[in-house]
């Protein structure tokens, strides 16, 4: 639990209850509920088109919900825009990270919030401070970058995700929303990113982790929300569900069992050397 929240220990950082969202006639979300607590990781799992991105766009202030309630630190809210969300401590890391690939790592770390020194005509960017701080903050998250002057485009996808997470922590986010941070990564890099997701949680942030991958979710998650075609079909605390069951539900549960049955029984087609092959 974070110290800031200790005065009101029972108030969630973010709470959605019965939230729906329509795009014209398309029902993108219906009756979805989710709670984000300080020091907790809530995972949102679902297949393509399930409504995951729509859900986080509401939390990030990009879209507004059409029905239900959305409270930030206990206060009913409709966020006007992403800046509004940021001001309330909600930082979102999108899959296509908004970075400037040719700029140094430290420049990207402070992008839009550059500290200055001196005043009047002598005012200039405090480059030294930015270099030192970027290195120190990344080190605090366990990333020992040899050279913070290297262009951020030269970092791996996983390292870039980590820089984005470290940045959100440094700038005082209370809620960190991550849209499929491991989707494009291999096994090892996914592990590194998940470590920093856990580090953000240990720093007291409330984390919302969106993923297709039940294994990744189960490695770090405290709570799991399952979405299908815009509706919630499961909401489980970690001690209520096993990895096997989570995987089964994600894979379509009984639908997958039926498919396995069919595949087992179907004779191999001719061109694959089935019984009719010459
Ligand atoms: N701007 C939009 N206008 C109309 N329909 C939309 C819009 N954005 C999303 N949708 C529809 O809403 C539904 C949910 O989309 P969403 O992007 O939230 O799914 P997702 O779970 O993030 O999928 P993916 O895993 O493919 O990213 C889909 O049917 C999608 O086609
Ligand atoms: Mg999406």
Automatic annotation (TrEMBL):
<dbReference type="InterPro" id="IPR003593">
    <property type="entry name" value="AAA+_ATPase"/>
</dbReference>
<dbReference type="InterPro" id="IPR017871">
    <property type="entry name" value="ABC_transporter-like_CS"/>
</dbReference>
<dbReference type="GO" id="GO:0005524">
    <property type="term" value="F:ATP binding"/>
</dbReference>
<dbReference type="InterPro" id="IPR027417">
    <property type="entry name" value="P-loop_NTPase"/>
</dbReference>
<dbReference type="InterPro" id="IPR003439">
    <property type="entry name" value="ABC_transporter-like_ATP-bd"/>
</dbReference>
<keyword id="KW-0067">ATP-binding</keyword>
<dbReference type="Pfam" id="PF00005">
    <property type="entry name" value="ABC_tran"/>
</dbReference>
<protein>
    <submittedName>
        <fullName>Sugar ABC transporter ATP-binding protein</fullName>
    </submittedName>
</protein>
<dbReference type="InterPro" id="IPR050107">
    <property type="entry name" value="ABC_carbohydrate_import_ATPase"/>
</dbReference>
<dbReference type="GO" id="GO:0016887">
    <property type="term" value="F:ATP hydrolysis activity"/>
</dbReference>
<feature type="domain" description="ABC transporter">
    <location>
        <begin position="14"/>
        <end position="254"/>
    </location>
</feature>
<keyword id="KW-0547">Nucleotide-binding</keyword>
């Amino acid at each position: 639990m974070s110290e800031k929240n200790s005065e009101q220990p029972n108030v969630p950082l973010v709470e959605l209850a019965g939230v729906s969202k329509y795009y014209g006639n398309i029902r993108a979300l219906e009756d979805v509920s989710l709670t984000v607590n300080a020091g907790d990781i809530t995972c949102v799992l679902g297949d393509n088109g399930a409504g995951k991105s729509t859900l986080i766009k509401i939390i990030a202030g990009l879209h507004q919900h059409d029905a239900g309630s959305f409270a930030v630190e206990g206060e009913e809210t409709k966020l006007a825009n992403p800046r509004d969300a940021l001001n309330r401590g909600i930082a979102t890391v999108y899959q296509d990270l908004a970075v400037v690939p040719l700029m140094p790592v430290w420049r990207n770390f402070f992008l839009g919030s550059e500290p200055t020194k001196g005043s009047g005509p002598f005012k200039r960017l405090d480059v030294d401070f930015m270099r030192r701080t970027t290195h120190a903050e990344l080190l605090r998250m366990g990333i020992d970058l040899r050279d913070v002057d290297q262009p951020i485009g030269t970092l791996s996808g996983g390292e870039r995700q980590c820089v984005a997470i470290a940045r959100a922590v440094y700038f005082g986010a209370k809620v960190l929303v991550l849209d499929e941070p491991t989707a494009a990564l291999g096994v090892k890099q996914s592990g590194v990113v998940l470590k920093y997701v856990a580090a953000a949680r240990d720093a007291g942030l409330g984390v919302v982790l969106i993923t297709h991958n039940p294994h990744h979710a189960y490695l770090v998650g405290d709570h799991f929300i399952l979405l299908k075609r815009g509706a919630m079909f499961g909401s489980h605390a970690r001690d209520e569900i096993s990895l096997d069951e989570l995987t089964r539900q994600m894979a379509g549960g009984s639908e997958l069992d039926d498919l396995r049955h069919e595949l087992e029984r179907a004779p191999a087609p001719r061109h694959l050397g089935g019984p009719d092959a010459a």
